[in-house]
Structures are given as C-alpha cells and as structure tokens.
Design brief:
It is a single chain. The chain has helices at 2-20, 41-52; strands spanning 25-34, 61-67, 70-73, 79-81, 98-102, 106-114, 120-123. By secondary structure, the chain is α+β, with helices and mostly antiparallel strands. The strands form 2 sheets. The chain has a 4-stranded mixed beta sheet with strand order 2-1-6-7, with helices on one face. The chain is elongated. 25% of the residues are buried.
C-alpha cells in the first residue's frame, strides 16, 4: 500500500520542521488530499499512526481534508465538479479539452506542535507534493 510511503514522507518532513523549531512534540498534522490523488484516507490515517512511532510526531492527530476534483474548459470557460469516475468532457460545450484545476493535491497544509505546554506553535504550510 503506497499510503505507508506517503505517511513516512509526511512524518519525515514534519519531524524535520518540528526539530528545527525546537518543538518537543507534534499535536496535529493537517493534509490536503485531492479526490483524484489515489489515496485512501483510512489507510493513510492507519499508516500515519505506525509511521509516527518513535519520532517527535508520535501521538499526533492526522486531519485529512479531501479536495474535490474540479475541471475547467479552456474554449468556453465552463468549470465543473469532475466526480468519480472523472467526467472530463465539458458539460457546457461537450468538448473534451478539460484542464484539472484541483483534485490531485497531496500536501501538508498545517502542523501544530508544542515546544512547551503554555506556548503551542503552528507552522503553515509545509509543502509536500506527491
């Protein structure tokens, strides 16, 4: 399952950022995952829990936000929700010249860590392209 390799990459990036800022732990990691990214959110959440073991990220919560897939037709300017399975022909002019404008994202949107209990830090964004 490729969700484990994604989770390991996320943990590595978050751990590096947290350590460079002197954080002693991470509270939450918020990911944006596109509808067409080919990621199963439950599998990613499970893998994230395993990938965090023994790191400064251990015990952190993972919030996965799904980004809907949207496309735009260059000739007519129409924009629509692509859906699943993806509909790439324009519903306005019926041309198959769609450009995806969202739905393939896979990135870290925000990380909340703590360097001491009285002063939580929030880091936005940490870029993770996938």
């Amino acid at each position: 399952m490729h969700e484990m390799s994604i989770a390991l990459a996320v943990v590595d990036q978050v751990e590096e950022a947290a350590r460079s800022h002197g954080a002693t732990g991470v509270r939450t990691v918020r990911l944006l995952v596109g509808e067409l990214a080919g990621v199963v959110p439950d599998a990613l959440t499970f893998s994230f829990g395993l990938a965090c073991a023994g790191t400064v990220v251990a015990g952190a919560g993972l919030v996965v936000e799904t980004v809907p897939a949207r496309a735009r037709c260059a000739p007519c300017g129409g924009e629509w929700a692509v859906g699943m399975p993806p509909r790439l022909a324009c519903p306005v002019c019926d041309r198959a010249t769609a450009e995806l404008v969202s739905g393939r994202e896979l990135r870290i949107a925000a990380v909340e860590w703590h360097d001491d209990p009285a002063n939580p830090g929030v880091r936005e964004p940490i870029s993770q392209e996938g």
